What we know:
The protein is mainly α. It has helices at residues 30-33, 42-67, 73-99, 112-117, 169-199, 210-244, 248-253, 264-272, 302-305, and strands at residues 125-129, 134-136, 140-143, 148-151, 155-157, 162-164, 319-322.
Amino acid sequence: MMITPIHRFRDIERKPEYLQPDKCVPPPSRSSSGMMWFIRDGCGIACAVITWFLIFYADFVVLLVMLLPSRDFIYSLINGIVFNTLAFLAVASHVRAMLTDPGAVPKGNATKEFIESLQLKPGQVVYKCPKCCSIKPDRAHHCSVCKRCIRKMDHHCPWVNNCVGENNQKYFVLFTMYIALISLHALIMVGFHFLYCFEEDWTKCSSFSPPTTVILLILLCFEALLFLIFTSVMFGTQVHSICTDETGIERLKNQEPTWEKVTGWEGMKLAFGGEFSLRWCSPFSDLCCKETPPAGTATVSPSEMMVEEAFDQFSDQEVVVQVC
């Protein structure tokens, strides 16, 4: 047996029994796994409700305080259509990011039969997550909130009550983009409305009393400025993560890449599902682009995809089996 140089891990035999597969519950059947993905986390649900409330509040102030009392019908119509369209796309992106499986590894698949079916070759290493009893693919990490191992997990976001991973990163990027756009749009309209009210009579520039109007506009301005900064930063970090093919967790760990990176424009096409088109901006389009190996390279079997050749240096509780 080859001795692995990883001092963090406990050396064990290569027999499947040493992964304790008898303690693992087999993964659910296909019929049960087709259920809607939803994380029952109180904090995440509260944050999601707050997000919807803040979008509704912004829409309320934009429509009833600024646009409807305006004397310029064309101005109100154009800005109302643009703002509500962006707000609708933001909500749709939020829902898709929240209800889409981010790339969860089948729970309890570290069974004796599955381990033997991998047909591991000499020198190959597989990792078992002791928390969800799953064989972890490369770049998968366990989320303590979702209670699952997530492929290409970037982080767990309470605002979408879900992990951001391989399958829903596009929707999270769209959510941050549309929130940043409506925040910027709201700030511009608040600025113009203040100028309009200063030039005109405050009692005529809104259907509310002047003190109420000022309070509503200041609250909207504070909300829009705060979320413009926050979502712009998140949007930039997510795009950078896609273009460098490095998740937030991997960047924090300063993890050396053991995978073939798909960077730049190719990474964007892989994350957003194909060649550049309007589908990239739509939260209703599903991901249809699969990463294909370059011409002339050997294809990778599903069993080999489950093999992790590099260790997760911060996962001290993982169990390692090395076949010799």
